[in-house]
């Protein structure tokens, strides 16, 4: 049976790892390389690494750093941030990414998804969607790290990116991001009900029950989380042990050498 | 032990190279078919569409060299798209002839049960249906990492050495003599992945 993935997300800004709340008030919490190494040693299901400043700064993905990060990463690695051209996708795959996340560029140039899927295969094109509920009661999609309202309704956009050839959707609730108050289940459902490709739930996980809810009620194929794996004692391994008791198929729950203290980096004051 | 990774511009070869090195192999990544002369093992990796994959192999002049290597009993391992190219025919990106090392076709997965989404992404069981040196020391049913929408449908069931429970049961590994193909990614499957690569290098 296909296992439900528990995926740590690493948010990368300038030179370090960061954590924010509602896509704002970023705090530096450490460096990327050690975090990737720890996750690799613990054999997590997959890792997502998002460069959240590339698009806003109008720069390309940092291929050299990705090359270094992935050198000793023998688990699947999804990389996003600043991807605007087919060349960017190719260079990220060459640098060691297994899948590439496209967010802002997808709205302006949907052809990037179509051509990317055609050339590199749908399976490595992940479309990342950041959404929040707006005054008109719909979930609307925001680009540029949550700063620009695209006017697209999330269900419609999910359908559209799937028809363009996306192989997976990473759906993040902007309001819930970093709050640890639970995923926005209505948002997740809106996306899973409007697509037939795998959906990764993101934004708001505070405990293992939240993850169960995203899978059970939200129908997510995978759950991603950042804060709880960095600021609490909770670990991907324990998350999977919990999910297993609830009947969710997961992998590697008896893995050894995962029980040592989890990556906990002391936040550096701004 | 000198493993050659065929570079035909289809996806990420870096992690395959690093994994093989971890397993103790000397690795060359090459676009030049001439380099195959010095190799003891050949790895055909790749992600992307079948049609483009074959077109690129052809463009770089790999097809006659790979055919000769297959005949000369050099161990060949196809990974993901590389496995699919071992077949006679594929349909992704338009109908196209494959290398034809193992009789069969490459078809698109079709959901058989509610909740089965395509692509098939994530960790799933590899159930060994036949004894193979490739799986030595690996328990049948071990999870490996998959990410694909198409699969190898062998004409002769004897060529299937493992199946995976998704969209019915699809063939996730094939083998005949010195030719091996696996749909999953050993380079991204942690310890079981290393074990499998070591087994291949030991063949």
Q: Mind explaining what this structure looks like?
A:
The complex is a heterodimer of chains A (270) and B (203). Chain A has 270 residues and is α/β, with parallel strands linked by helices. Chain A has a single domain, classed as TIM Barrel (Alpha-Beta Barrel), CATH 3.20.20. Helix content of chain A is 33%, strand content 26%. Chain A has eleven helices and twelve strands. In chain A, strands 1-4-5-6-7-10-11-12 form an eight-stranded parallel β-barrel, surrounded by seven helices. In chain A, strand 10, helix 8 (185-192) and strand 11 form a beta-alpha-beta unit. Chain B has five helices and 13 strands. The longest helix of chain B is centred in the C-terminal third of the chain and has 12 residues, at 190-201. Helices cover 22% and strands 33% of the residues of chain B. Chain B has a single domain (2-201), classed as 3-Layer(aba) Sandwich (Rossmann fold). By secondary structure, chain B is α/β, with parallel strands linked by helices. In chain B, strand 5 and strand 6 form a beta hairpin. A nine-stranded mixed β-sheet of chain B has the order 2-1-3-4-13-12-11-8-9, sandwiched between helices. Chain B has a four-stranded mixed β-sheet with strand order 6-5-7-10, with helices on one face. Chain A binds chain B through residues 1-5, 43, 45-46, 67, 70-76, 93-99, 118-124, 167-168, 196-199, 219, 221-222, 251-252, and chain B through 11-15, 18-19, 22, 47-49, 52, 81, 93, 111, 115-125, 143, 145, 147-149, 165-166, 185, 187-191, 193-194.
Brief description of this entry?
The complex is a heterodimer of chains A (270) and B (203). Chain A is of the alpha/beta class. Helix content of chain A is 33%, strand content 26%.
Q: How is the biggest beta sheet of chain A arranged? A: 8 strands, parallel, barrel
Radius of gyration of chain A: 17 Å
Could you name the ranges of chain A where pLDDT drops below 50 across 5 or more consecutive residues? 257-270
Q: Trace the largest sheet of chain B across and list its strands.
A: 2-1-3-4-13-12-11-8-9
Can you tell me the overall shape of chain B? globular
Structural class of chain B: alpha/beta
